[in-house]
Amino acid sequence: MLARGRSRSGQDFSLLDFPCMIPTMRILVVEDQPKMASFIKKGLNAQGYIVDVSETGMGAESLVAENPYDLIVLDVNLPDQNGMDTARHIRQDGYKGPILMLTALSSTKDKIHGLDAGADDYLTKPFDFDELLARIRALLRRNTGSETSKLRFADVELDMVLRKVVRANVELNLTAKEFSLLEYFMRHPNRPLTRVEISEHVWDVNFDTNTNVIDVYINMLRKKIDSPFEKKLIHTMVGYGYILKDS
Q: Do the bridges between strand 26-30 and strand 193-194 make them parallel or antiparallel, or are there none, so unpaired?
């Protein structure tokens, strides 16, 4: 059953009706129905999330072992194993992020089983896309312990709601990918970041880490965030990666 493109108020919506005001985070969607998986992926991509998809429970377990996910959307009915078993295995393997379980089963008993298996929340199909977004936001907010919509470092302020970046009272015009890249830096200030870490959080699982795309985007970001100003914030660590520091 597909998530409806209609809100509870009866109004039709497009995926683009939701403003991109979500922090750059990586989500795994485990759903065996291609149309449903595609719908969720496109909607979350439009919100600024990096999204990977698995059609099986075992495939999901492999992806979680290889990639750092901030949240997992997990369907209960999977072709190879029950989603509750998948949740249990992922927890046993050490995953500590939030799991949002999707299912057509709506009884209290079913929900209890899902929560006992390691889920943090439970959403019954069919659901509205805006409700899915609200659940995801709440889980991520709870997991990060952050209620703020703004990030600040040195004289830079990044507003995730307005998608606006200001440095020294000058508003900067960034592309969506540049914004995501700067956000990742600002969430990890004064910490060396490898190209692999950057690719895993700003690009999806299919990104080719052998290309120079990351370096190209770093240079593009520097031209906007650093070049017009006396103090430089984004520094290269030769042989390692990059670091955002105020020096």
A: unpaired
Task: From 176, 205, 180, select the one nearest 28 (Cα to Cα).
Answer: 205
The secondary structure of 176-197, three-state, reads HHHHHHHHHHHHCCCCCEEHHH
Residue 127: the pLDDT is 87
What's the CATH code, domain 15-144? Answer: 3.40.50.2300
Longest dimension (CA), the chain: 61
Q: What is the pTM of this model?
A: 0.59
pLDDT at position 23: 46
| Residue 115: its H or E element | helix 108-116
22-74 residue pLDDT tens: 446 789 999 999 999 999 998 888 877 889 999 999 999 999 998 889 899 99
Q: What is the CATH number of domain 150-244?
A: 1.10.10.10
Beta bridge partners of 53: 29
